[in-house]
Specification:
The chain has 622 residues and is an alpha/beta fold. It has 3 domains: 34-156 and 280-310, Response regulator (Rossmann fold, 3-Layer(aba) Sandwich); 159-278 and 312-341, Response regulator (Rossmann fold), CATH 3.40.50.2300; 470-622, Heat Shock Protein 90 (2-Layer Sandwich), CATH 3.30.565. The chain has 18 helices and 19 strands. The chain has helices at residues 4-9, 11-33, 51-65, 88-98, 112-120, 159-169, 184-196, 214-222, 248-256, 281-296, 318-323, 344-347, 349-429, 435-462, 475-485, 487-492, 512-529, 584-594, and strands at 36-42, 70-76, 106-110, 131-137, 150-155, 175-179, 205-208, 228-232, 261-262, 275-276, 315-317, 336-338, 471-473, 496-501, 508-510, 537-544, 549-556, 598-603, 609-616. The protein has a 5-stranded parallel β-sheet with strand order 2-1-3-4-5. Strands 14-16-17-19-18 form a 5-stranded mixed β-sheet. A 4-stranded parallel β-sheet has the order 7-6-8-9. Helix 3 (51-65) packs across helix 10 and helix 15 crosses helix 17 (512-529). The longest helix is centred in the middle third of the chain and has 81 residues, at 349-429. Residues 1-5 and 12-31 have low confidence and may be disordered.
Length: 622
């Protein structure tokens, strides 16, 4: 092993070794960075379908699959447009001169004319350069003249299957116009198609366009009879010698055609043709690029064998299928349908699902709200019915307490009636009847009878179920009626009554029985509140409330209402009485609020409480 000291002593030699190593690495890097030179040779030109589509796809596949940088150039064989081969020699000389100093690593010929050109001039043109023949029908390849430097990626056009596809989807077809031009390759395929379609001669008639200019072809296409179809082969050069590049000929035919157009190559698919079993550009391109990469990697071209690319499963353009009324049931099994207009569901699936979810949620919310509304309405009806029942029960309960007073009030006029009837009889039984006294007694009897009737009428109305009918009510008169009913209780409990009723009060709009119930409950509560106090004074006062309502104040000198109970005293089931039900004041509040009024309680400084009721006049009496 060389030690560091030895290396230092031999610096010149070490420097020379390092220089050689660096130079070697630089050369290796230069070789590695040198691109592979590939020429794409077109049959007619860079814009002639279908080969233009194959060329673009092959270029993309080469760049994708190649591990090396590529220098790709394009050249076109213009002489293939005619049968004259004289222009080929100058073109061969041009190519030889162009690549004399920088030889090609690979030539890819696209289409049958380019393949035939190369095979004719193989000895003069890049005899040792590897070649790949692609996008060429296998019948157009001269396999006997292939050299060891040649590889083939051929296709197989099954014309019989393509025409049978027309009859499958359109079984009424009687005439098929085959669109084909006048160039040598187009004449070749005219003969091939006629030969392959012979088994169908008893079903359809083939007509040809190689004898027509393209303008004449368009005129015939616009006047084609029913039960006809087009089969697009090629239109490179028409009978008038006009060259047609790109996809414009097919587009112009599609614009005037009175029958559907079919073909066999995917490069024509996507706008004008109906579809069927097609040669896929991608299949040929992938296989061509794979063969090219193997050759560039050092494999011998003649050792690389590939099978011909055949039709893929049928493809159909939904727009053309719909345009010509072709039933989807007539399409071959496993057919792929492209360009189908998406349904609203397919296009807006997320939005529809979201809208449905929102609608369902909204529907559920609305249903719940309707249910709650109905439940609340039923509850309100039940509450009103219950309140009416409680009001009635409260009146009935009050009737027990008022029975003595009622009996006394009714008994007084009845007793007077009986006494005056007896007196009248005595005055009539005398020797000289005192008619004046009898008349006076009869008047008193009539007055007592009216009084008894009024008492009974008022008592009956107090304990009938109200009918919610409203009318103009005189509050002062209503208060005097209630006072008349409780007069016995006032005397029995030794309660002093003080009244201060404003005679200028306007009437209020309300239910007389209900308002009478409110005043009665408040007065009876006041009497009960004063049972345990020595000084018992009941004050009833009416005034105008701010000019737009009637204010009734019922005050007592009883035990009063605690400040903490003032907010709860009007709630149901709340009571300060030992034997109370807690419904009287709740009913009073319900009645007052149903009349758009207000009710509250306040304490008196000297003891006791005062209940206030304000009822709107609603413009009555103005």
């Amino acid at each position: 092993m060389m030690l560091w000291s030895d290396i230092c002593r031999n610096r010149p030699a070490v420097g020379f070794v390092l220089f050689l190593l660096a130079a070697s690495l630089a050369c290796t890097a230069a070789v590695a960075a040198e691109p592979k030179r590939v020429m794409l040779l077109h049959s007619f030109g860079r814009d002639f379908k279908p080969w233009s589509d194959y060329a673009k796809s092959i270029r993309a596949e080469l760049e994708r699959q190649s591990p090396w940088p590529l220098d790709i150039t394009d050249h076109s064989l213009v002489s293939a447009r005619s049968s004259d081969e004289d222009p080929e020699s100058p073109f061969v000389d041009y190519l030889r001169a162009l690549f004399a100093k920088q030889p090609l690593d690979l030539i890819v010929s696209i289409g049958a004319p380019a393949a035939a050109f190369v095979q004719r001039h193989r000895e003069r043109l890049f005899n040792n350069t590897p070649m790949v023949f692609t996008a060429v029908e296998q019948r157009r390849v001269q396999y006997s003249t292939l050299t060891p430097n040649d590889a083939v990626v051929a296709v197989w056009i099954n014309y019989l299957a393509a025409i049978e596809n027309i009859l499958r989807v359109l079984p009424d077809t009687q005439n098929v116009m085959v669109v084909v031009g006048a160039s040598p390759i187009e004449k070749f395929w005219k003969e091939a198609i006629a030969k392959e379609a012979e088994p169908l001669s008893n079903r359809i008639r083939l007509s040809w366009t190689d004898h027509l200019s393209f303008d004449e072809l368009l005129k015939q296409a616009a006047a084609l009879p029913p039960h006809s179809a087009f089969f697009w082969e090629l239109m490179i050069v028409d009978a008038a010698g006009v060259v047609h590049e790109g996809g414009s000929p097919l587009t112009r035919l599609h614009a005037v055609a009175k029958a559907p157009i079919f073909s066999y190559d995917e490069s024509f698919f996507g706008r004008e043709i109906v579809g069927g079993p097609l040669l896929l550009v991608a299949d040929t391109s992938r296989q061509t690029a794979a063969v090219a990469v193997r050759i560039l990697g050092g494999e011998k071209p003649s050792d690389i064998k590939t099978s011909a690319v055949q039709f893929a499963r049928p493809m159909f353009d939904w727009r053309e299928v719909r345009r010509w009324g072709i039933s989807e049931n007539r399409l071959p099994p496993e057919s792929e349908i492209f360009f189908r207009d998406p349904s609203a569901w397919e296009r807006y699936r997320s939005e529809i699902l979201l809208i449905c979810a929102v609608l369902l949620l909204q529907g559920a919310l609305i249903s719940w709200l309707i249910y709650e509304h109905r439940r609340r309405s039923r509850a309100e009806v039940l509450a009103r019915n219950s309140m009416s029942e409680l009001t009635h029960m409260n009146r009935v309960a009050t009737a027990g307490e008022l029975s003595a007073s009622i009996a006394h009030e009714v008994n007084q006029p009845l007793t007077g009636i009986v006494a005056r009837v007896g007196a009248a009889r005595r005055w009539l039984a005398g020797e000289k009847p005192d008619l004046d006294r009898v008349r006076a007694a009869l008047d008193q009897i009539e007055a007592a009878g009216h009084r008894a009737s009024e008492i009974v009428k008022n008592v009956r109305s107090m304990f009938q179920r109200d009918t919610q009918e409203r009318s103009a009510v005189d509050i002062n008169g209503l208060i005097w009626t209630v006072i008349g009913l409780v007069n016995i209780d006032l005397r029995k409990q030794q309660v002093d009554l003080k009244t201060e009723l404003d005679d200028r009060l306007p009437p209020v709009l309300g239910n007389q029985v209900q308002l009478q119930q409110v005043i009665l409950n408040l007065i009876m509560n006041a009497i009960d509140a004063m049972r345990s106090v020595p000084k018992r004074v009941l004050s009833v006062k009416t005034t105008l409330d701010r000019g737009d309502g009637v204010h009734v104040a019922i005050a007592d000198t009883g035990i009063g209402v605690a400040q903490s109970d003032s907010d709860k005293i009007f709630k149901p089931l709340f009571t300060t009485k030992k034997q109370g039900m807690g419904m009287g004041l709740s009913i009073c509040r319900s009645i007052v609020e149903s009349h758009d009024g207000r009710i509250w309680v306040s304490a008196l400084d000297a003891g006791g409480s005062v209940f206030h009721v304000v009822l709107p006049t609603n413009g009555l009496g103005n």
